[in-house]
Write a structure and sequence with these properties.
688 residues, alpha/beta, Nucleotidyltransferase, domain 5, five-stranded mixed sheet, two-stranded antiparallel sheet, 23 helices, 7 strands
């Protein structure tokens, strides 16, 4: 018997009527809710539990189950030391997470680390006390002191750097370097990397910024890069491409950084920065245009250099109701500065001339600027286009394939701009076009000016063609440019399988995109049909109103004839008849004038309706052409929808026919108006 397994009783919900629940520490042991005493498993018998209740708690023996259920709820909600520590631990953990998140936001915004305890914590306190007065203060559990924020930012930055270094150790990547000098003559070398991560996404990250102690020679830069890669355990052989500017220390054939790098990585692909070359090409100006640019910069500096001149010029712009009130300084190191400075200067050109004339600062500047208005307009337009190209070349997703398309397209556009100038087609040069339209004389844009501008465009094209020769000769595989239509058999054997999968995936996406566009067009057609039905209903209501107005005019005509007959019988007393006739005629004229005004309003409404119907018809035709050109391969699936569109078109044509009938009715009303005018003139003659 001793070796047999003892029977273990399990708790049942029916035992609650005896005031017993499972023990907190062991659910197989019963515990009394009244005295909180725990018994052995043998005490789980109903007889023993009933005996304990009647002997130890006789005053509670006759209580129902609801009483013990409420007692159980109170027991479960009681405060315990373990629960207090657990809730406090959860609060501290959440506060720590919030501290990291807020520190990340502070780092992103570039704010001072003290802003956490000086602004964010007080702001959170005010928000909680105002919006949730009963909520306890949670700010003490969020550490946002200066040192806490700094340590959080350093920890997160270190973690991000370590992850980046670990990825670069096993991943091939491209490197971009640039050397810069700070205000205190401190030289820095900046490095960026671009690679494909484990998720097959192109990632661009900032790698490091190292200080150059003495000089910025190519060997010094290479030693700094090599030392950093060795410290982080990143092999230089993982660098497959490198981009730099055109400085001699970078691209020198024997002692440049690229030369040192190629000795370590012979097969590396190197290229000069595309944006830097585009900026250098934009600086190529003729002597005349260069002197114009210097005159603009001199005028801007003359105004901006003195605070009094700046305030007076701002007040002058305010009085002239200019869109802007400040000029922009030109900064050579800013790529977009020159175009923005010229654009703002030309927008405030008249105010600038007024300022120099009124202040009498320098009559030569005012006269010189007046003679160079066309040059400033041209420079403003061409640098605006150069800025657009520069902005397109920026961004983390830009690559050589896209850059080649943008640069080659702009070079080809230069010939088009030149031909437009020679034909005096200035649509591509809005400032020059506005200048020519505002000034009637031909001296504002002479043949000499056109020759100067066209020569600059030709020189700009030749300069960019030379600078981007390597980019033009860069061969890009067909399957990279157009993987959907490229022949997979001519690609690299290692990429054939992936390319075919990509083609099928792109095809599925294209079909799904076409279906989405079809649904969108279908919804637009439904909305257009609703608008057309609403217009037809408005036209019908307008017809009803017009018929009522016509009936009212006919009634007035009959009443007019009756009144005329009455007045003809009273002509025996000319004075009385004349006064009465004048009074009646004035009343009738006012009434008829009111209805004629209403008729004119109805006619205007009808014209608006016709315009709206014409716009709807134009939208319909444009939508039909778009569908026919967009879904040639899916024409079989779209026949039903095209049929519906044709039906709607016929319905619109019928509406236009009914509209034509309504125009005929308006013409009849106009004829009736002329007839009334003629009769009124006859009545005036009779009265006289």
């Amino acid at each position: 018997m001793s070796n047999q397994k003892r029977k273990c009783r399990q708790y049942s919900g029916e035992y609650l009527k005896y005031g017993v629940i499972p023990s907190v520490n062991n659910e197989q042991l019963p515990m009394c809710l009244l005295c909180e005493k725990t018994f052995t498993n043998e005490g789980m018998k109903p007889s023993r539990m009933n005996f304990h209740l009647k002997v130890k708690h006789p005053e509670k023996a006759n209580r129902d189950v609801a009483y013990f259920r409420d007692l159980k709820v109170k027991f479960e909600k009681r405060s315990t030391i373990g629960g207090l520590f657990k809730s406090h631990g959860n609060e501290v953990e959440k506060g720590l997470i919030a501290s990291y998140k807020v520190s990340k936001l502070i780092a992103k915004c570039g704010k001072s680390h003290t802003i956490g305890e000086t602004l964010i914590i007080p702001a959170v306190k005010e928000i909680i006390s105002t919006m949730m007065p009963t909520q306890k203060d949670i700010t003490p559990s969020i550490p946002l002191s200066n040192s806490s924020v700094s340590s959080r930012i350093d920890e997160m930055a270190s973690d991000i750097e370590n992850k980046l270094y670990d990825e670069l150790k096993t991943t091939q990547f491209s490197l971009q370097l640039d050397e810069t000098t700070l205000r205190d003559n401190e030289a820095l070398i900046l490095a960026y990397v671009r690679y494909i991560n484990s998720s097959h996404a192109v990632v661009e990250e900032f790698l490091f910024a190292e200080k150059l102690e003495v000089d910025t020679k190519g060997s010094t830069v290479y030693k700094a890069v090599e030392q950093f890669f060795k410290q982080k355990g990143i092999p230089l052989s993982n660098v497959i491409a490198c981009a730099t500017d055109g400085a001699t220390s970078m691209v020198g054939r024997h002692r440049g950084f690229i030369a040192h790098l190629k000795r370590e990585v012979p097969d590396i692909f190197t290229i000069r920065c595309v944006i830097h070359r585009q900026h250098l090409a934009a600086k190529h100006l003729s002597d005349r245009l260069h002197s114009t640019l210097q005159a603009v910069i001199k005028a801007v500096n003359r105004i901006k250099a003195h605070s009094l001149n700046d305030r007076i010029f701002r007040q002058l712009c305010h009085e002239n109701e200019e869109e802007f009130e400040r000029l922009l300084l030109h900064t050579e190191v800013r790529w977009l500065s020159k175009g923005n400075c010229l654009r703002r200067f030309y927008d405030l050109y008249d105010s600038v001339l007024d300022f120099f004339k009124c202040k009498l600062l320098d009559e030569k500047i005012s006269t010189d600027l007046e003679n160079r208005r066309a040059d400033v307009a041209y420079l403003s337009d061409i640098f605006n286009k150069l800025n657009e190209v520069n902005i397109k070349l920026q961004g983390t997703k830009m690559c050589l394939i896209n850059a080649k398309g943008i640069i080659m397209a702009f070079i080809s556009k230069l010939d088009f701009y030149k031909s437009c100038l020679l034909r005096l087609d200035l649509n591509q040069f809005p400032s020059l076009k506005a200048l020519k339209e505002n000034q009637t004389d031909d001296s504002c844009l002479s043949d000499t000016d056109l020759d100067c501008y066209s020569s600059h465009l030709q020189a700009l094209k030749e300069d960019m063609t030379i600078r981007f020769k390597d980019l033009k000769e860069l061969k890009i595989p067909e399957w990279v440019v157009n993987p959907f239509q490229a022949d997979a058999t001519n690609a690299d054997p290692n990429l054939v399988e992936e390319l075919k999968t990509c083609k099928m995936t792109l095809k599925d996406h294209k079909i799904s995109g076409l279906n989405d566009q079809l649904e969108k067009v279908h919804r637009e057609n439904e909305a257009r049909v609703k608008r057309e039905s609403k217009l037809v209903k408005e036209i019908e209501d307008l017809k009803v109103d017009t018929l009522g107005l016509s009936y009212r005019i006919e009634t007035l005509q009959i009443e007019k004839e009756i009144e005329i007959e009455k007045f003809s019988t009273k002509l025996q007393d000319p004075q009385e008849t004349n006064d009465h006739l004048n009074e009646e005629l004035s009343d009738k004229d006012a009434s008829i004038g009111e209805y004629l005004n209403k008729l004119i309003e109805m006619e205007q409404i009808n014209l608006d309706m016709c315009d709206r119907l014409a716009n709807v018809e134009d939208e319909k035709i444009a939508s039909t052409h778009w569908l026919e050109s967009r879904f040639k391969d899916k024409i079989v699936e779209f026949e039903e929808i095209i049929g519906e569109m044709k039906t709607e078109k016929e319905r619109l044509e019928m509406s236009l026919v009914r509209n034509g009938r309504y125009n005929c009715l308006l013409q009849e009303l106009k004829a009736l108006k002329e007839e009334y005018s003629h009769k009124f003139s006859e009545m005036e003659q009779k009265k006289s």
